[in-house]
Amino acid sequence: MIVNIIFGLVIVLTVGGAIVTVTSQNLARAVFALLFTFLGVTGLYFLMQADFIAMVQLMVYIGGITILLLFGVMLTQKAHKLKVGFSAVNPNTGAIISMGVFVGLVMLILNVDEWYDLEFVNLNSTISKIGENLLGQWVLPFEVASILLLMALVGAATLARRREK
Amino acid sequence: MIEFIFDLFKPAEFPIISRILFAVLTFAFIGGFVIVAVWLERKVAAHMQDRLGPMRVGFHGILQTIADTVKLIIKEDIIPSAADKVLFITAPFLVFMGAFLSFLAIPVSEEFTPSDLNGGLFYILAVSSIVIPGLVMAGWGSNNKWSLFGAMRSAAQMVSYEIPIVLSLLVVVMAASSLNLSEIVGAQKVGLGGFSGIAGWFFIRNPFLFVAFWVYIIAGTAENNRTPFDLPEAESELVAGFHTEYSGMRFAFFFLAEYAAMLVMALVVAICFMGGWLPIIGTESAIPGFVWLLGKAMSIVLLQMWFRWTFPRLRVDQLMTISWKVLLPITFVLVLGQGVWSIWIG
User: Fold this and answer.
1) Domain identity same for B63 and B86
2) Which of B48, B74, B100 marks a domain boundary?
3) Which of B28, B49, B74 is the last residue of a domain?
4) Residue A163 confidence (pLDDT)
């Protein structure tokens, strides 16, 4: 009962934020609305007892991506006067692709044989299991991903540095 | 009747009411702490400058902050006509939420933790990142150059100092081999050579943890935008930074959030480095655990106040140099050293 109410609130936050993000003509407001969508998705993860993913969502999307977008908006010249229009580019292709994605997702949901009930999946410690898997069975992909991120970091620092002599 | 009131706090019997009660009590506790802390800060400042500070309202001015709070509540709520009203109104609550949610994972004593999360430490770090977009929202919504500059400075500063914070706490996580805050405290019960009490506390367990303790205190002070790292609200340059346009209750919420964040940082230091609810000598004591925890946290709060009235404000480039060129390399060495220490010495 209480879970359903919370679920409803989280859905309102997520979908409402997404709608404002798409329809807002003010660039800064769109970014802040996206922040609430991210918060809603975090709530969804918490409701599904995926605590680790929820915290990563907070850390990466709210602490990282939103800030990056905000800096992008603020470093844009005259961002507050910029009006984001609704002029559609390639409406037919867009409609076909989004309908296709929607139908595909619905098909996927309808084809699931067995739904797990949260009452029975008692994940006591997701974090230690994720840690063991990352440094056990999947250590090679994990390390490759770290090297990729390190390369991106060094690359970004080099690009940012080039201008000053 | 009294039994019924106690029953209201049991989540098993009143799942909704008990949780609302906990939230309200936490809010009341933060409010009480802020009232005491603001008075304390003014007193500490006054005595360090050889003044008396507030003296008139109550004994040694102890009721001064309550009078100030009443004034803030009944003040006119002004919203600038050029401001983006939706953002302007939402921002203070978002900023306060970041600090308020952290209290969910704080283990108050051995018997009681509001929510004993397995990734409690990670949760606190993740939740406090909500503050940054909140500050930028306040700065942008105010439609004021000073506010915007303050907000951008604070965003850049907090993003930079998050990295030394995470890495210095990683040293603690490696020493305790757990992200659970109760288990981190539990790991500090017995130290090297089987001594309990203060010998078990992490900040004197080995040289790496000792340095990590100071790195966390420096980076945590910067994360809370407190002097000497208060560039986002530097009075002499930016009027009051991101909250220049705020007044009345909305301004009070920024104030609450700032002091609540300070308390969270002090509580994290007390839990991760100073043994949480554990007493100074032995493992048992007549004084209850939450008194120990609060006492340790208050000593860190006093240390931050001492910083504020001792050090001059840094320049922006010095601020960034400290984070990226001093603290970051130090924490890399600490993580490596703690790994070696954990494997060979224990």
Assistant:
1) no
2) B74
3) B74
4) 66
Within 8 A by CB and 6+ apart from B304, the residues are B221, B224, B226, B262, B265, B266
Residue of B118, B136, B162 with shortest CB distance to A70: B136
Minimal Cα–Cα distance from A114 to chain B, Å? 28
Q: By CA distance, what is A33's nearest residue in B?
A: B87
Same domain, B46 and B128: no
DSSP one-letter string for B48-77: HTT-----SSSGGGTTHHHHHHHHHHHS--
Interface contact B126-A51, CB threshold 8 A: no
> Could you tell me which of B311, B313, B308 has the C-alpha nearest to residue B43?
B308
Whether B35 and B108 map to the same domain: the answer is no
Number of domains in chain B: 2
User: Which residue range is the domain that position B51 belongs to?
Assistant: 1-74
Given a cut of 60, whether residue B85 has pLDDT beyond it is yes
Asked if B324 is an interface residue toward chain A (Cβ–Cβ < 8 A), one would say no
CB A67, CB A35: distance < 8 Å:
no
Residue B275's region, left for phi above 0, alpha for psi from -120 to 50, else beta, is left
Separation between Cα atoms, residue B61 and residue B100, nearest integer Å: 28
Q: Kindly report, residue by residue over B203-262, the tens digit of the pLDDT.
A: 888 888 899 999 999 999 988 888 788 777 766 677 777 777 787 788 888 888 889 999
- Domain check: are B173 and B56 in the same one? no
